[in-house]
C-alpha cells in the first residue's frame, strides 16, 4: 500500500470542498429554521411567547434578535463571508439555547444545538476554506 494510503491522507485535497458543503448545509438549515419567523408576524409572536415561557428576559426583543442572528449566521456561512465572526456568534447563540432550554431535553434534546456549537467553533477557528468570500480578502485558513 502506498505511503499514507492507510491514513487516507489523499482525502485532504477535498478539505475545501467539504468546508463549502458544511457551510452550505448548515447555513441553509439555519435560514430554513427561522424563515417562518421572518415571514410571519404570528410565528414571531409565537416564538416570543415560547421565550417568555422559558423565562428569557425581554422576549419581544429577544425573539427577533435570535431569529436575525440565526439568519445572519446562515447567510454568512453560505457566502463564506465574516465566517469566523459568524462561527463565534453561532456558537454563543446555541450555547444560550442549551443553557436556557435544550438541557432539559437530555442528550437527544440538546444534541442539535450542541452540534451547532461545535460547527460554529470549527468555522471560527479553521475558517471557511478557500471557496469563500473571505478567501478573496485574505481570510483563508491555509
Walk me through the structure.
Helix content is 72%, strand content 0%. It is an all-alpha fold. The protein has one domain. Helix 2 (41-53) crosses helix 3. The radius of gyration is 18 Å and the shape is elongated. 27% of the residues are buried.
Our Rg estimate from Cα atoms comes to 18 Å
Could you describe the largest sheet, including whether it forms a barrel? none
How many DSSP E strands? Answer: 0
Measured as a percent range, the helix fraction is: over 70%
User: What share of the residues does DSSP label as strand, in percent?
Assistant: under 5%
Count up the helices.
6
- Shape call: elongated
Quick description:
By secondary structure, this protein is mainly α. Helix content is 72%, strand content 0%.
Element layout with pairings:
Blueprint: H1 15-39, H2 41-53, H3 59-79, H4 83-100, H5 106-126, H6 133-136
Helix pairs in contact: 1-2, 1-3, 2-3, 3-4, 4-5
Identify the notable features of this structure and list them briefly.
142 residues, 6 helices, mainly alpha
Amino acid at each position: 500500500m502506498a505511503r499514507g494510503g492507510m491514513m487516507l491522507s489523499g482525502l485532504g485535497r477535498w478539505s475545501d470542498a467539504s468546508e463549502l458543503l458544511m457551510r452550505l448545509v448548515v447555513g441553509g438549515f439555519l435560514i430554513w429554521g427561522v424563515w417562518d419567523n421572518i415571514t410571519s408576524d404570528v410565528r414571531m409572536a409565537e416564538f416570543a411567547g415560547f421565550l417568555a415561557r422559558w423565562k428569557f428576559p425581554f422576549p419581544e426583543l429577544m425573539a427577533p434578535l435570535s431569529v436575525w442572528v440565526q439568519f445572519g449566521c446562515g447567510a454568512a456561512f453560505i457566502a463564506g463571508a465574516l465566517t469566523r465572526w459568524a462561527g463565534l456568534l453561532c456558537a454563543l447563540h446555541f450555547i444560550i439555547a442549551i443553557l436556557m432550554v435544550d438541557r432539559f431535553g437530555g442528550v437527544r434534546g440538546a444534541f442539535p444545538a450542541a452540534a451547532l456549537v461545535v460547527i460554529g467553533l470549527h468555522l471560527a477557528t479553521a475558517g471557511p476554506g478557500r471557496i469563500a468570500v473571505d478567501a478573496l480578502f485574505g481570510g483563508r485558513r491555509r
